[in-house]
Amino acid sequence: MKEPRWVPEQAVIAIHDELIVEHGGCFGLRDPNLLSSSLARPKHLFAYSDSASLFDIAAAYAFGLAKNHPFVDGNKRIALAVIDVFLRLNGYELVAAEEEAVIKINNLVEGIENQESIATWIAANSQEL
User: Fold this and answer.
1) DSSP 3-state assignment of 15?
2) Backbone torsions φ then ψ of 94, nearest 5 degrees
């Protein structure tokens, strides 16, 4: 697989701010290092896995952002948004129902789902643009 188009850190912060304006919550980055770690996770997966798919990488973004909790508020929302942005940057879109997507991200945070199961779900609920 060729190197995917990544979601830049500043874009993640801007999207987070838009989500807070739209849905409410507190602005702010709780820990910049946790954001950097969250955004490095998918890049490491790409660099060190021979078989990582775009869906695996999207799940790595979601896992990092949802579990590392880099923002004061809205971490699950930004995790879901970044899945969609990453997929769109790379020629796919997430077509899952919003309610199902919210449940999946909540389950990821609660440990009911893991990165691999989220990747499988993303693959099953994505289509080429």
Assistant:
1) helix
2) -85, 125
Task: Give the position of tokens 């838009």.
Answer: 18
Residue 25 tokens, joined: 């919550």
CATH homologous superfamily, domain 9-128: Fic/DOC protein, Fido domain (1.20.120.1870)
Is the distance from CB of 42 to CB of 61 less than 8 angstroms? yes
Give per-10-residue mean pLDDT for the chain (129 aa): 95 96 92 96 96 97 97 94 98 96 97 97 98
Determine the Cα–Cα distance for residues 61 and 39; give it in Å rounded to an integer: 6
CA distance 111 to 129: 31
pTM of the model: 0.94
Within 10 angstroms of residue 12's Cβ, the number of other Cβ atoms is 22
**Vertex 90, ends 111 and 61: CA angle to 5°?**
25
Please, where are the H alpha helices in 1-129? Answer: 9-23, 32-48, 54-68, 75-89, 98-110, 115-124
Give the whole-angstrom CA distance, residue 40 versus residue 64.
9
